[in-house]
Amino acid sequence: MSRALNIDATQENVLAACAKHDAAISTIETLPGGCTRVVLRSGDGAALIQRHFGKSVVTKTLARTPLSLASRGVPMTQDLPPSAAPAQTFGFKKR
To answer: Which domain holds residue 55?
Structure first.
Protein backbone atom coordinates (compact mmCIF):
# COMPACT_ATOMS: atom_id res chain seq x y z
CA MET A 1 0.00 0.00 0.00
CA SER A 2 1.15 3.53 -0.77
CA ARG A 3 1.97 5.77 2.17
CA ALA A 4 0.62 8.82 0.27
CA LEU A 5 -3.09 9.66 0.46
CA ASN A 6 -5.22 12.43 -1.05
CA ILE A 7 -8.13 13.15 1.28
CA ASP A 8 -11.17 15.35 0.75
CA ALA A 9 -10.82 17.02 4.15
CA THR A 10 -9.09 20.04 5.63
CA GLN A 11 -5.50 19.80 6.76
CA GLU A 12 -6.64 20.34 10.36
CA ASN A 13 -9.01 17.35 10.16
CA VAL A 14 -6.26 15.14 8.73
CA LEU A 15 -3.82 16.24 11.43
CA ALA A 16 -6.39 15.49 14.13
CA ALA A 17 -7.11 12.03 12.71
CA CYS A 18 -3.40 11.23 12.49
CA ALA A 19 -2.92 12.30 16.10
CA LYS A 20 -5.93 10.25 17.23
CA HIS A 21 -4.61 7.10 15.50
CA ASP A 22 -0.96 7.81 16.38
CA ALA A 23 -0.05 7.79 12.67
CA ALA A 24 3.23 9.63 12.10
CA ILE A 25 3.30 12.09 9.17
CA SER A 26 6.24 12.56 6.80
CA THR A 27 4.70 15.51 4.95
CA ILE A 28 1.34 17.18 4.51
CA GLU A 29 0.07 19.84 2.09
CA THR A 30 -3.16 21.48 1.05
CA LEU A 31 -3.99 20.94 -2.61
CA PRO A 32 -5.88 23.26 -4.97
CA GLY A 33 -9.57 22.70 -4.42
CA GLY A 34 -9.24 22.11 -0.69
CA CYS A 35 -8.13 18.47 -0.55
CA THR A 36 -5.17 17.45 1.58
CA ARG A 37 -2.24 15.28 0.52
CA VAL A 38 -0.55 13.45 3.37
CA VAL A 39 2.38 11.03 3.32
CA LEU A 40 2.53 8.82 6.38
CA ARG A 41 5.74 7.33 7.73
CA SER A 42 4.43 3.77 7.58
CA GLY A 43 2.07 1.70 5.50
CA ASP A 44 0.25 0.68 8.67
CA GLY A 45 -0.40 4.33 9.51
CA ALA A 46 -1.63 4.96 5.97
CA ALA A 47 -4.01 2.01 6.24
CA LEU A 48 -5.42 3.36 9.53
CA ILE A 49 -6.00 6.82 8.05
CA GLN A 50 -7.49 5.37 4.87
CA ARG A 51 -9.99 3.39 6.94
CA HIS A 52 -10.73 6.44 9.10
CA PHE A 53 -11.63 8.66 6.12
CA GLY A 54 -13.22 5.90 4.01
CA LYS A 55 -14.96 7.40 0.96
CA SER A 56 -13.27 10.77 1.55
CA VAL A 57 -10.02 9.30 0.20
CA VAL A 58 -9.62 10.63 -3.34
CA THR A 59 -8.42 8.05 -5.87
CA LYS A 60 -8.14 10.29 -8.95
CA THR A 61 -4.97 12.23 -9.78
CA LEU A 62 -4.93 15.75 -8.33
CA ALA A 63 -2.81 18.75 -9.32
CA ARG A 64 -0.11 19.77 -6.87
CA THR A 65 3.12 21.74 -6.64
CA PRO A 66 6.15 19.54 -5.96
CA LEU A 67 7.55 20.38 -2.53
CA SER A 68 11.06 20.78 -3.96
CA LEU A 69 9.82 23.69 -6.10
CA ALA A 70 7.76 25.17 -3.28
CA SER A 71 10.83 25.29 -1.03
CA ARG A 72 12.66 27.32 -3.70
CA GLY A 73 10.04 30.06 -3.71
CA VAL A 74 7.99 28.92 -6.70
CA PRO A 75 4.35 29.89 -6.02
CA MET A 76 2.20 27.09 -4.69
CA THR A 77 -0.62 26.18 -7.08
CA GLN A 78 -3.20 26.84 -4.37
CA ASP A 79 -1.89 30.43 -4.05
CA LEU A 80 -2.46 31.22 -7.71
CA PRO A 81 -5.55 33.04 -8.91
CA PRO A 82 -7.88 30.69 -10.84
CA SER A 83 -7.35 32.63 -14.06
CA ALA A 84 -3.55 32.31 -13.97
CA ALA A 85 -2.13 29.88 -16.48
CA PRO A 86 0.92 28.01 -15.14
CA ALA A 87 2.98 28.93 -18.21
CA GLN A 88 2.43 32.62 -17.52
CA THR A 89 2.87 32.33 -13.78
CA PHE A 90 6.23 30.58 -13.89
CA GLY A 91 7.66 32.86 -16.57
CA PHE A 92 7.58 30.45 -19.50
CA LYS A 93 6.67 31.82 -22.90
CA LYS A 94 3.83 30.23 -24.80
CA ARG A 95 4.65 28.93 -28.27
So the answer is: 1-60
Write the pLDDT tens digit of every residue in 25-61: 999 988 878 899 999 999 999 999 999 999 999 988 8
pTM over 0.70: no
Q: In this predicted structure, what is the pLDDT of residue 14? A: 94
Query: What are the CA-CA distances from residue 90 to residues 62, 65, 73, 75, 94 (Å)?
Result: 19, 12, 11, 8, 11
Is 14 a member of any domain? yes
- Judge whether 89 and 41 are in contact, CB under 8 Å: no
Instruction: Give the number of domains in the chain.
Output: 1
- Domain of residue 23, CATH code: 3.30.70
